[in-house]
Specification:
With 113 residues, the chain is mostly beta strands. 8% of the residues lie in helices and 47% in strands.
C-alpha cells in the first residue's frame, strides 16, 4: 500500500474556481451535518465545508446547491447527483483552529457556462 503525503497549506483569502467532488452526511460535534468536499481547479487544493440539514431556502445547503445547479430553484427537492461534479466559485478566508490554519468557505457562487 502506498500512502501519499500531502503538506496542507490553506489557500490565501480570495475567490477561486472549484468543482464539488462529494457531499455526504456526517455526525459532528454539532449534530448531523452535510460535508461538502470541493477541489480547486487550478492547483488541486481541497476545501471542506459543512452545512446544516435544514430544508429551508434560507439555509446554506440550499444556497450552495442552487449556486452549483440553478435548476434546483425550480425543483421541490434535490440529491447529491444534482450537485456533484458541478463547478462554482468559492470565496474562502483563513481560519485558525486547534489544528492550525485552514480555509473557511464564505460564499459559493455560480459559474456561468
Amino acid at each position: 500500500m502506498r500512502i501519499n503525503i500531502h503538506n496542507y497549506r490553506p489557500l490565501d483569502n480570495g475567490r477561486y474556481r472549484f468543482v464539488l467532488k462529494s457531499i455526504e452526511e456526517k455526525e459532528t460535534m454539532y449534530g448531523e451535518r452535510l460535508m461538502w468536499l470541493f477541489e480547486e481547479l487550478e492547483h488541486g487544493a481541497t476545501v471542506v465545508g459543512f452545512t446544516s440539514l435544514s430544508t429551508s431556502t434560507k439555509a446554506n445547503a440550499y444556497k450552495w446547491a442552487s449556486a452549483l445547479n440553478p435548476e434546483i430553484q425550480n425543483q421541490r427537492s434535490w440529491t447529491e447527483k444534482d450537485v456533484v461534479s458541478k463547478k462554482c466559485f468559492l470565496t474562502v478566508g483563513i481560519t485558525h483552529g486547534s489544528n492550525g490554519p485552514g480555509n473557511k468557505i464564505t460564499e459559493v457562487a455560480p459559474i456561468e457556462e
